[in-house]
């Protein structure tokens, strides 16, 4: 792990984890440019790297505390700050942004606990999360963007606030939550989400 010149020697899995940096930063830039659908597409790609790095680390015997902490920092970018910025830009601002503040705060607490304890076992002896994992914020974001245009802004804000409050509370619950462990599940969700929002962005701009 140590390097004679730098603080740490990165391995192959660390580079996959860090691939979320340019992807997420570009998603944030697109959000500021009022391209929320394309930004969300990129976040699903970032989610793919986030899901695969842990699997590869276990498979290659490269699991180490540094990787867990690095992954946690990437989670802040992918699942807390980026979705909050996108929702804020879509009109979930002013008073309503208290929901975003709460989501980010509860998400940080949940990630700090995860860095300390890691995964846990469920009743069947499989891997599970303690508290609802932060990556569900991306699915929440996707759902809210899909229905954004079919209801009034204030109704959309109210529904978003309710869902954010429930999500924030669930992240702090002391109970196991399901963990995706099958590769086909991960690929279907991440690549499917990325493709869906890419198509929505392209067709929206063409119409």
Provide the spatial order of strands within the biggest beta sheet.
Answer: 1-2-3
| CATH architecture label name | Up-down Bundle
> What would the average pLDDT be, to the nearest integer?
91
The number of domains is 1
**Low-confidence spans: pLDDT under 50, at least 5 residues?**
none
* Strand element count: 3
Helix content: 55-70%
Radius of gyration: 17 Å
- Helix/strand order, N-terminal first: HHHHHEEHHEH
The CATH superfamily label reads CDP-alcohol phosphotransferase transmembrane (TM) domain
Structural class comes to mainly alpha
The general outline is: globular
Distance between the termini: 52 Å
- Main β sheet profile: 3 strands, antiparallel
> What percentage of the residues does DSSP assign to strands (E)?
under 5%
**Count of alpha and pi helical runs:** 8
Question: How are the SSEs ordered, and which strands pair?
Answer:
Blueprint (H helix, E strand, L loop, with lengths): L11 H7 L1 H13 L3 H25 L4 H25 L8 H20 L2 E2 L5 E4 L5 H11 L6 H19 L4 E3 L4 H24 L1
Antiparallel strand pairs: 1-2, 2-3
